[in-house]
Amino acid sequence: MYLVRPADFQDLPALERLAQQAGIGFTNFPANRDRLNDKIASSKRALQTDVVNPGDETYLFVLVDEATGDVVGTSGLEAMVGLESPFYSYRIDEVVHASPQLQIHNRIPALFLCHDYSGTSRMMAMIINNQHQNPTAMSLLSRARLLFIAKHSDRFTQKLFVELRGDSDKHGYSPFWESLGKHFFSMDFKKADYLSGVSSKHFIADLMPRYPIYVPTLSSEAQDVIGVVHEDSAKTSDLLLDEGFEFRGYVDIFDAGPTVEARIQDLRTIREQKSGKTLISTKSEIEAKNTDSASYLISAGHLEDFRVTSARAISQVAGLSIDDQTSERLSIGSGSQIQWATL
Amino acid sequence: MYLVRPADFQDLPALERLAQQAGIGFTNFPANRDRLNDKIASSKRALQTDVVNPGDETYLFVLVDEATGDVVGTSGLEAMVGLESPFYSYRIDEVVHASPQLQIHNRIPALFLCHDYSGTSRMMAMIINNQHQNPTAMSLLSRARLLFIAKHSDRFTQKLFVELRGDSDKHGYSPFWESLGKHFFSMDFKKADYLSGVSSKHFIADLMPRYPIYVPTLSSEAQDVIGVVHEDSAKTSDLLLDEGFEFRGYVDIFDAGPTVEARIQDLRTIREQKSGKTLISTKSEIEAKNTDSASYLISAGHLEDFRVTSARAISQVAGLSIDDQTSERLSIGSGSQIQWATL
Amino acid sequence: MMVIRPIQIDDMTSLYRLAEQTGVGFTSLIPDEVILQRKIEASLHSFAKMELNQPANEDYLFVLEDTETGDVVGTTGLLAAVGLEEPFYSYHIGTTTHSSRELGVHNIHPTLVLNNDYTGISEVCTLFLEESYRHSKNGQLLSKSRFMFLAQFPERFTEKIFAEMRGVCDKNGLSPLWESLGKHFFSIEFERADELTALGSKQFIAELMPHNPVYVNLLPESAREVLGKVHEKTAPARHLLEQEGFRFENYVDIFDGGPTIEARISDIRAVRESRLCLSSVGTPKDANEGTHYLVSNAKLEDFRCILIQRATPPGSGLVLSDEEAKHLKVDYKDPVRIVELSPHARR
Amino acid sequence: MMVIRPIQIDDMTSLYRLAEQTGVGFTSLIPDEVILQRKIEASLHSFAKMELNQPANEDYLFVLEDTETGDVVGTTGLLAAVGLEEPFYSYHIGTTTHSSRELGVHNIHPTLVLNNDYTGISEVCTLFLEESYRHSKNGQLLSKSRFMFLAQFPERFTEKIFAEMRGVCDKNGLSPLWESLGKHFFSIEFERADELTALGSKQFIAELMPHNPVYVNLLPESAREVLGKVHEKTAPARHLLEQEGFRFENYVDIFDGGPTIEARISDIRAVRESRLCLSSVGTPKDANEGTHYLVSNAKLEDFRCILIQRATPPGSGLVLSDEEAKHLKVDYKDPVRIVELSPHARR
């Protein structure tokens, strides 16, 4: 059984291990103890503050394996990116060049540097320990954030986006970076990736190409990976598309990984989530009545006390029947307000 | 009482009068008999053809004053613009220039020439004789097209847009044109407007600015009218916004009039329209039962026989009760399939 | 004797014969009677214009005639102003720098910027000389006679003048720049694009070319290498013009990357150093030995230019032989323009 | 006697005094001890560099000393290569043509294209001469002495060199170009922008300037008019440089639209015509009458340049007076460089 809750300082060593495991490509989660500590502190501050409009808050959650008590995964939310320095992406736009005289009608894709996602909420890449990359844990960790957003919608913008890790070749090189970024940054991908995680992003504006990049002028290897998800992130990607996230032609400026976005109200978990009272039963009663084996994501509590777990349960008119172990895990009693969605 | 039906050749003189009345600013409806004749022919061809996907079809409708039998208005639909030559607009995008050193964060709006509406269905500007510019006639003529789209949805794209006429000063000059267009077209607004209606639009690509136009470099009069609707089109504009059309930052390249767009499924008339059988009553019965004075847009018939009128009616489970005059106007009998929406 | 003169209406056959010899890639001279006829007429019309407010669409075409055989064996031309009716495109190799003080990185990126900067400027056009006459300084006469015309009629040209040089092709006749850039935007073959341009149909360039600067570093090395480089066959022509003061100012051809070189007319060596003197007809001393000089008359429609050789530098008067005077169409005390054929070695 | 020499460490006080006199808008010489100290040190370091692979960040600063009073009364400088550490921006006035054959319309639009094209190029820096010394050709000596240095040490500079000229302000001291363009993007005052640039903080330009070409026709007439025009006070300086062969190549300052003028060093009149000869010390004939000549020694750190007058053109040897030789720091048979101060009138 797993539980998702906001991160706290005691999670620092576990988070550091996760960051090391994740390696490069996770810009927002560098294996740097100070930065991780800052992230926890920032999340705690956000949870303790009375927020009326989304600002520079960040929220960090951990996935706990209840069997051992270990932190085995993490995921995050940013209330609004691009406040300190613009949030850059490439927008793939087609430039149409047509000559009726020659009967040519060319559509040339070009990459336009933009910061269209500045001012938007973001789900940060999720990391899960290899042994726990099962559908339940992944779905729980990913979607727990959506229940948090549903509960605290004033803290987020209407639109939400996620950046997916881009493809790299068998040596771990990003062909997109090799063909484009390295000419402008004069450093290797790893360093640029690290810097954009730890430093102000100002250097990006300083060094990025100012003019649109015509895709056909890139190497064919680079062209091939534009908007392609790294195989390690394929599962995450599937989960997100399932939720209702869509690719709208934006890619990462370093590795060309796709960005997917959605209006919060259109996301499956948020649209379908219900809220109501907790009705406590015993495990055997639930098992007996739950003939269709329905499992639910169940969340309870506000802000710092926010908890999400998954369990078999029975949806009733007045609320949701859950077993006593689940209620204990969520630290709630009968009659407490909870939210739930089908797992 | 008014009726909307597809235009036919006998409507040519009336259409010419309407075009003359409309004057400049109605790019798509030049007072040119040959062009108007072509428009009718094109519409008839489209209605007689078996269309499976939207292409270069155009549809032209007329508003008939049943009291006199006169054609007093017209409106049109284009299944897909930008097939022969791209359909140009300016997209207003903000360019962010920030200097942390100077603590400056500027957002400079700039006009980017684009053809983002190429490949999209369009509602063409509607013209109504001055004496008939009453809410019923306007609503009927405008929304009749939406019932046509609802009925023949395969013939249109998912997105639909309308260009609204831009603002001009008291002398009829477009300040936007004076500040921008005339430098590039070396002709007056009237001529450019006329040409873009009658000739291939190729000259636009040839002569338009190739680089984005920074809005602050335009005269302040020009800046003031970007995205502003001409007062004569204010009612049309209100109707469209009411329907669910939205301004997404696109303006006309000549006069900077706003373009509004919507997904077809999100439009009120289309979302709320119902279909069912015709139930015929007498006028007095309708009047007697229709205590809430509900009036409806009612359409019947396919393609060439498509007709729309407005009348008081009573919505029933099985269909819509209309009076015999209305059924006669629509040339339908009891039990015919009709669509309706609240007026 | 080899004489430069304006083309005449009856040179049509000769010009066609020359055009046939040029081969692929020589787009300014195509064996097509209609086009050549139009060229000749334009030239006649240009030489005949007496009053000019400013240089416009004049197109001056010269031929090199072997007076012994009467054959026309070469041709060259001058355009008064390009791009006034059809756009004239080039790439300017510009510089864009990006620096991040935070990271201590300072990058200098060359970029190709599409432009029409040569609009309204005079052009020294391509030159063709028959294979069998490529000796005895005929090439230099053909090329530099244009400068004598410029020196005599500067009001017919703009302050600056430029020349386009053929770019590099690989061993398969492909242009590396075109292969990695142009063809993505044109979806036609290089030769066809080149041909259309030569025919004056430049509209399609505006329609198809990328309008944003292209970062040179993103192009493959093969393409980067040929920017501003000339085809090996054109190297001597480039050298000749550079000796006269033409300079590469970072403009290149949009298709093959060949350099455009330019000069202010008054700075061209042959223009600057040429001077007028008065002719007399007689028996020149030490003719046919010593230094070669270009000599031209001061006439417009009857412009002539020849090459002479003198052991002693002529002063304010120039003694011409009967034959020289006849071919120059000058008489006693007529003004003639003279300049050393080659520049002195620089200090 | 007025002598040009490299700045020395003990010129600090004099330089500060000069800086105080420059006034607003003279951003290269600001009365700030720290900045001036740094400038002097950079110059000393530059003159002291013996081995150079290529021109880099050397900054050569010269002063004009009145040897009778020992006062430093003017200063001028040369930069070996700009833009290698901080970007150097200019606008290029380019041409964009749009034509529609269908409508028979052909438009030629000038555009301002932001660029860093002068990156890595040498610069002739601003010059300041004390008010009371603006006579007796002191200004020409100060300005043209730089060309003597260029002629002597061409390996320390790039092939081309440029000079920035102050642009036009209206009667309220506002730059019409800035008012209609720059200020929209900067939201700071012109003076502040100019000052930041002078202090070398050019990063903000990249951050704030529009990266797309600006159509000149869309600017108000007042702004269009000043493009490439100099401030009336700078007109004589421009004239002087143009006489020497500097040319306006359509580059202008991004703030005030003032012209940048450029020349190939080898084409500068004073460089091209200057020659080395051997000095001897004695009593020159006809001194202090006739033509003025610039004379410099051939030394680097001990570079000196003075103005002399001779009635007869010196040949391969130059007889200097004791005083002249002393101030030039030359001895018998030392090489000296000489050139006429002013160009001959053109033919």
From TrEMBL, chains A, B:
Keyword terms of this UniProt record: Acyltransferase, Arginine metabolism, Transferase
Top-level taxon of origin: Bacteria
An example Gene Ontology molecular-function term: arginine N-succinyltransferase activity
Native source organism of the sequence: Marinomonas balearica
Signal peptide positions on this chain: none
GO terms, biological process: L-arginine catabolic process
One Pfam family per UniProt: AstA
The protein's name in its UniProt record: Arginine N-succinyltransferase
Automatic annotation (TrEMBL), chains C, D:
The enzyme's E.C. designation: 2.3.1.109
BP-aspect Gene Ontology terms: L-arginine catabolic process
Keyword check for Isomerase: no
Keyword Transferase part of the UniProt annotation: yes
Gene Ontology MF: a single term: arginine N-succinyltransferase activity
Keywords noted in UniProt: Acyltransferase, Arginine metabolism, Transferase
SUPFAM superfamilies given in the database record: Acyl-CoA N-acyltransferases (Nat) (SSF55729)
NCBIfam families in alphabetical order: arg_catab_AOST, arg_catab_AstA
Name recorded for this polypeptide: Arginine N-succinyltransferase
